[in-house]
Design goal:
Trp-tRNA_synthetase, mainly alpha, 5 strands, 2 domains, 338 residues, Tyrosyl-Transfer RNA Synthetase, aminoacyl-trna synthetase, cytoplasm, Rossmann fold, protein biosynthesis, binds tryptophanyl-5'AMP, EC 6.1.1.2
Length: 338
């Protein structure tokens, strides 16, 4: 089993990232058997697809590394690195650009959402972004890619690219690429904004009140939950009663995901109660669960030297693991390298 996944080092690690992806990274790492490897990386090359401040990207990359370690990614067991230190990601992307089709990229919902009506004004990187994402996982022959629901389409594209490349340039018994499987948690695949139950919780939402950051202190968490948008009805006692109530569903789902309980079970306890009772319980659960992570994060992010060393070691290992596939790709394409 080869597990590979990434996160963009823009802004803070938030509850959506944690419940949708990072918590599964840690679980998969902890369940790893001999001969299996987990690779987790900071997708800094992806972050330049949108306008960005170079100084901020640099500090956000180190902070995100600290956040991942604080969440339980163990650099001694998993390969933790940033993309920019492993040039094979960008190289493989170029090689795969020959296989990816414009039509496939045009259908990506993230491209459509981010570009909006101004497609002509977007960077080429934003359009080609899913090809780099395919390179990220195909480079390491990933079998499983733990992500939130919003990345499912990108993973399907990675499979399409792998399949077309194998068909066009490899023999059936010696494919160059493994087809990766997305691994999406059923219970927290899509955590929504605290201000709008129809928008996903996101780093790019301008409102800080829309998300819980893992580094938020107890006061900030309690305040954000207190102010979270809800409706005037009490909670239903069965899950079906949450239909058409996206904000209520989101808060109950967050509670369930944090407590390791089913939505039905949470409603069995809180059904019939108003948000005046439920919100403080949710806030306290979040504070209690996140406190050790944020304490560790604050400590780790001060130690620049240790973070640099972790990333350098991870990158060296990633370069080693990616080399055979990169070489095989060049060879399959007939490119002469001496
Ligand atoms: P990014 O940085 O936006 O998010 C990192 C991970 O967090 C998940 N996630 C969520 N899950 C549930 N609810 C939410 N509200 C929520 N918001 C984010 C994402 O699904 C993701 O798993 N393109 C990717 C980074 C990437 C990558 C890759 C991932 C680059 N290369 C290769 C996997 C494999 C991204 O921008 O994720």
């Amino acid at each position: 089993m080869r597990v590979v996944s990434g996160i963009q080092p823009t802004g803070n690690l938030h509850l959506g990232n944690y419940l949708g992806a990072i918590r599964n990274w840690v679980r998969m790492q902890d369940a790893m058997e001999d001969g299996s490897t987990c690779l987790f990386f900071l997708a800094d090359l992806h972050a330049i697809s949108m306008p960005h401040d170079p100084a901020e990207l640099k500090s956000a990359t180190l902070e995100m590394a600290a956040a991942l370690v604080a969440c339980g990614i163990d650099p001694a067991r998993s390969v933790l690195f940033n993309q920019a230190q492993v040039p094979a990601h960008a190289e493989l992307q170029w090689l795969l650009n020959g296989t990816a089709r414009m039509g496939w990229l045009n259908r990506m919902t993230q491209w459509k959402d981010k570009a909006g009506k101004n497609r002509e004004g977007q960077s080429v990187a934003l359009f080609a972004y899913p090809v780099l994402q395919a390179a990220d996982v195909l480079l390491y022959q990933a079998t499983h890619v733990p992500v939130g629901e919003d990345q499912k389409q990108h993973l399907e594209l990675a499979r399409d690219i792998a399949q077309k490349f194998n068909n066009d340039f490899a023999s059936e018994d010696a494919p160059v690429f493994t087809l990766p499987e997305p691994f999406i948690p059923p219970e927290a695949a899509r955590i929504m904004s605290l201000r709008d139950g129809s928008a996903k919780m996101s780093k790019s939402d301008p409102s800080e009140m829309s998300r819980i950051n893992l580094a938020d202190d107890a006061d900030a968490i309690m305040q954000k939950i207190r102010k979270a948008k809800t409706d005037p009805e009490p909670l239903p006692s069965e899950a079906a009663g949450l239909a058409g109530r996206p904000e209520a569903l989101n808060l109950v789902s967050i509670y369930g995901a944090m407590a390791g309980r089913q939505v039905a079970d949470v409603l069995a306890e809180f059904g019939g109660q108003g948000f005046g009772a439920f919100k403080p319980a949710l806030g306290e659960l979040l504070v209690e669960t996140l406190a050790p992570i944020s304490a560790r994060f604050r400590e780790l992010k001060q130690d620049r030297e240790a973070l640099d060393a972790i990333l350098a070691r991870g990158a060296a290992r990633a370069r080693e693991l990616g080399r055979p596939t990169l070489d095989a790709t060049y060879r399959a394409l007939g490119l002469v390298r001496g």
